[in-house]
Amino acid sequence: MMRKILLMSALLALPVGYTCMADDSENTPIDLNDKGLRPTKRPKAPSAQRVTASVANGVLFINFAISEGECQMTITSPEQILEFSFDSADPLMLNIGELHDFQISIITENGNCYESDTIATSI
After folding, report:
1. Torsion over CA of 79, 112, 34 and 57, rounded to 10 degrees?
2. What is the mean pLDDT of each run of 10 residues along the chain (123 residues)?
3. Which fold is adopted by the domain 27-36+49-123?
4. What is the 3-state secondary structure (H, E, C) of the chain?
5. 116 and 82 in contact (C-beta within 8 Å)?
6. First-to-last CA distance in the chain?
7. What is d(CA 83, CA 18) in angstroms, rounded to the nearest whole number?
8. Which of 10, 40, 29 is nearest to 119 (CA)?
9. Domain edges within the chain
């Protein structure tokens, strides 16, 4: 019995500190701006919606804090135009490969439009 108490005391006295760190130095955040295609007859309350986007190693990540239904996304670059549809209820992880000087435009089922500035590279 005494042995169990000493063992438990020793385990509780040990400092425990774990830090999980990921190397996201390659991750490039993307600002998506709400273009506000809604009527402006009344004041607009601040939205709780947050759309986060980033690109790393040719993979595009997009996440909607609040689902806006089915989305149509267009990625425009000098080399090509890519079109995708996805459900905003789930985070999107899409391999877009190597693109240079591209822009992202997303139109949601709710009628909102989000556009990015020009992004230099996807790698």
Report:
1. -40
2. 59 42 56 64 74 91 94 94 95 92 94 91 73
3. Immunoglobulin-like (2.60.40)
4. CHHHHHHHHHHHHCCCCCCCCCCCCCCEEECEEECCCCCCCCCCCCCCCCEEEEEECCEEEEEECCCCCEEEEEEECCCCEEEEEEECCCCEEEECCCCEEEEEEEEECCCCEEEECCEEECC
5. no
6. 60
7. 42
8. 29
9. 27-36+49-123
